[in-house]
Amino acid sequence: MNVFILCTGRCGSVTVNRACDHISNYTNSHESRSQMYGEARLDYPENHIEADNRLSWLLGRLDEKYGDDAFYVHLKRDENATAASFVKRYRKGIMKGYQKILHGLPRNADKHAIALDYCHTVNSNIAAFLKTKTKTMQMDIENGKEDFTRLWDLIGAEGDKEKALSEFEIRHNAS
To answer: How many domains does the chain have?
Structure first.
């Protein structure tokens, strides 16, 4: 079974990925196929955990390929904190792309409001996608250890759970 960590980005996906490094019965990557397109973009190995915020733009294709056969995690963080982190990276990455989608933004547009709009849009898209899935959970990074323990049990993870949980004590990929 494949596991997909769906999220906005800037919400703890690197931390979850590092925790998953301690799972021995799944492979695990973070944004491993983000540079690919076409069939290759979603060609993950069996029993693989993938965290990639860009998957939120590919939900229809993810459904076509994996449907209800995968396990989906909606990773969330307080939207204001997530937006504040995106404001620090406003001119690059996914925020630069989102600004293009919001075509014609004024130069003095409220960056935090735009980042909040992005977070709300992505989280809403993920929530809509998950409505038809039977193997899902929401993981709040603020409750990382507790929620990761639940994920561990739901996917039948094996490995060093204590080392995995210790990853939530480290700030990974901080802005």
So the answer is: 1
Tokens for 138, please give them: 């929401």
Tens digits of residue pLDDT in 77-102 = 999 999 999 999 999 999 999 999 99
- Residue 175 and residue 171: Cα distance in Å, rounded? 10
Domain enclosing residue 156, as ranges: 3-169
Assess if residue 90 is contained within a domain: yes
Residue 173 pLDDT > 90: no
Query: Residue 109 corresponds to which amino acid?
Result: A
The neighbour count for residue 158, using CB atoms within 10 Å, is 12
DSSP string, 70-102: SEEEEEE--HHHHHHHHHTTTTSHHHHHHHHHT
pTM for the full predicted model: 0.95
For residue 7, give the CATH number of its domain: 3.40.50.300
